[in-house]
Specification:
The chain has 565 residues and is an alpha/beta fold. Among the domains are: 224 residues, 3-Layer(bba) Sandwich (FAD/NAD(P)-binding domain); 129 residues, Glutaredoxin (3-Layer(aba) Sandwich). Helices cover 27% and strands 27% of the residues. The chain is built from 13 helices and 26 strands. Strands 1, 2, 8, 9, 10, 11, 17 and 18 form an eight-stranded mixed beta sheet that branches. Strand 9 and strand 10 form a beta hairpin. Helix 1 packs parallel to helix 4 and helix 11 runs parallel beside helix 13. The model has no long low-confidence stretch (mean pLDDT 93).
Length: 565
């Protein structure tokens, strides 16, 4: 009988809420559902909201009764914020989080590299924003519980999964015992230690690194800006690396690498934590400043992925599918892209609108993205925590040269997470004009945001299904194009015709939405040269086709590619 921890977790700044467990005895009836998601981390919750956004019901199971312990993921990228905007929590994150643009690499007291990623006029969100994971999960939980298409079951632990025919059969344990649940599709978002992945004997590929890091969240008043700080080879921790980030509510994250061979349990002893944090504060000029410990943990750097994310009726996302080092803020940010890429596909498949073949493109796209990230993360990890004497000698040479040679500085760049471009996706249209464009997002790329007015951006107006951005100065969209869109809608697929008008027109015949581009900002960003150009965006907003001049046959072919039978 599963007995989840029922007392609020301890924290000096966050008030944990303990939810009531879901018990089968209070909800009699058949336990047969189209989609079940396991795990209420950021990826599981975002996946549920994405699926619901596309009109499909789902059930979410969580073994615990409260959100995650500790700050965990704290840095979220601009693309993650655009995804969170789609599911309705970006505003709350913006109100609480700390935005930033710059990162600093420091060696022997000297700044040797400054990463700059400034916010442009067309960006609604900053490049990065810091927020503790508990708050993000809270906001997502609130959105989930307010959504009538999602049922959240606290205190429900999955003990066993079997695939029988065209369903996954789950044994779910609760405080009153076990019950059986059947799902047409099961989404495993149960984290790096995924019990579902282990139970299916699935092996990950990639590399695990020897270096271990302590995460320590402390409350302290430091008059420093919200910028990433990376210290290499400090006197108090020779040969190793320390990272610092400001978090909301007066909290600072300190990550420091442990000397080789140190026992993790010893490293988390209060006296060890105090000595090391005091040494770090002394080094940056704030020795003796009072501080208070909130939470600490130890992690090791891993760059691993499953080679396939779809296994029969079980689909993997987030840390259950891939484990990535924190360098480059890739973990949760990569998971959000999993959630966005999976949500629309699974909703269409579950509703019978698309075939299960559509899910294979989720696996190929996201495994490809993970492999690219694993390669990049490996480079960052080998620099931050050299795995061998050879890598350490190379790193030390770079460190030494950086004091006198400015060209060395960019080698410190930690290759921050960026959205993947699915240039080879099977959903891309091969008969379009992709190669003719001189600017704009190409095949498989996420959209570029455009500022139309002080509080009006392109991505504010998009979301919910396929979007056809049609650039025009006329008063109507061709009837043949409208007929193609109507045919796709008749299949149960959401499509909108969005007219991007070069005139401040109040209405354009055939358009579901008209955007005023009289200043030409959108045309310029998207490389549009004349009327009749168009972009087709998938429901996850990635480009699957673009044309210098669009006709009905080409549009029909693009939808056929994006929605395989």
């Amino acid at each position: 009988m599963h007995q989840p921890y029922a007392e609020p977790r301890r924290s000096i700044y966050y008030q944990y809420q303990v939810h009531q467990p879901w018990l089968a005895s209070r909800h009699p009836g058949e336990q047969n559902h189209p989609i079940v998601i396991v795990g209420t981390g950021p990826v599981g919750l975002t996946t549920a909201l994405e699926i619901a956004r596309h009109g499909q019901r789902c059930v979410v199971l969580e073994s615990e009764l409260q959100v995650s312990e500790g700050s965990r993921a704290i840095v979220f990228t601009r693309r993650s914020m655009e995804i969170l905007q789609q599911v309705g929590v970006a505003q709350r994150v913006t109100e609480t989080g700390l935005p930033w643009c710059y990162g600093n690499s420091i060696y022997r007291g000297q700044r040797v590299f400054r990463m700059e990623n400034a916010r442009a006029d067309d960006d609604r969100f900053f490049p990065m924003i810091n927020l503790q994971q508990q708050y993000l999960e809270e906001y997502l939980v609130d959105a989930v519980q307010a959504n009538p298409l999602i049922e959240l079951r606290w205190g429900n632990r999955v003990n066993k999964v079997e695939q029988k025919g065209e369903q996954a059969w789950l044994e779910v344990d609760t405080p009153e015992g076990c019950y059986e649940l059947r799902a047409d599709w099961l989404v495993a978002c149960d984290g790096a230690r995924s019990g579902i992945r282990t139970g299916m004997n699935l092996l990950m590929e990639g590399a695990s690194y020897e270096g271990r890091f302590v995460i320590a969240d402390i409350r302290i008043d430091l008059p420093l800006p919200t910028e990433r700080l990376a210290f290499f080879d400090p006197a108090w921790n020779p040969g190793n690396t320390i990272l610092m980030h400001r978090e909301p509510h007066g909290i600072w994250r300190v990550d420091y690498q442990l000397p080789a061979g140190e026992d993790p349990e010893d490293a988390l002893r209060p006296e060890s934590l105090k000595a090391r944090i005091d040494a770090q504060l002394e080094m940056i000029g704030f020795g003796g400043t009072p501080w208070e410990m909130d939470w600490s943990s130890v992690y090791s750097a891993r760059a691993l992925t499953l080679p396939e994310y779809v296994h029969g009726r079980v689909i993997f996302a987030g840390d259950a599918a891939h484990m990535l080092p924190i360098f480059g803020v890739r973990g949760a940010n990569t998971g959000f892209q999993d959630a966005q890429g999976l949500g629309w596909r699974l909703a269409l498949v579950a509703k019978g609108v698309a075939s299960a073949a559509l899910l294979q493109s989720y696996s190929s796209e996201r495994v490809g993205a993970a492999r690219e990230i694993v390669e990049e993360a490996g480079k960052s990890t080998r620099f931050m925590a050299p795995p061998s004497r050879g890598f350490r000698l190379l790193r030390d040479a770079v460190l030494s040269l950086s004091l006198s040679q400015s060209f060395v500085g960019p080698l410190y760049h930690w290759r921050t997470s960026r959205p993947h471009e699915y240039g080879n996706s099977p959903l891309n249209s091969m008969g379009d004009d992709n190669l003719l464009f001189k600017a704009g997002p190409g095949h498989g790329a996420p959209p570029l945001n455009v500022r139309f007015a002080p509080d009006s951006y392109l991505l504010d107006h998009l979301g919910g299904g396929f979007e056809l951005l049609y650039f025009t100065s006329g008063k109507a969209i061709a009837a043949q194009l409208q007929a193609v869109v109507a045919g796709v809608r008749a299949r149960g697929v959401a499509v909108r015709l969005v007219a991007v008008s070069s005139h401040a027109a109040s209405a354009i015949e055939g358009a579901d939405l008209v955007l005023d581009d009289s200043e030409g900002r959108c045309r310029a960003r998207y490389g549009v040269m004349a009327d009749g150009a168009a972009y087709l965006l998938r429901p996850d907003q990635h480009v699957c086709a673009r044309w210098m001049a669009l006709d009905a046959n080409r549009l029909q072919a693009a939808f056929k590619a994006a929605l395989p039978a």
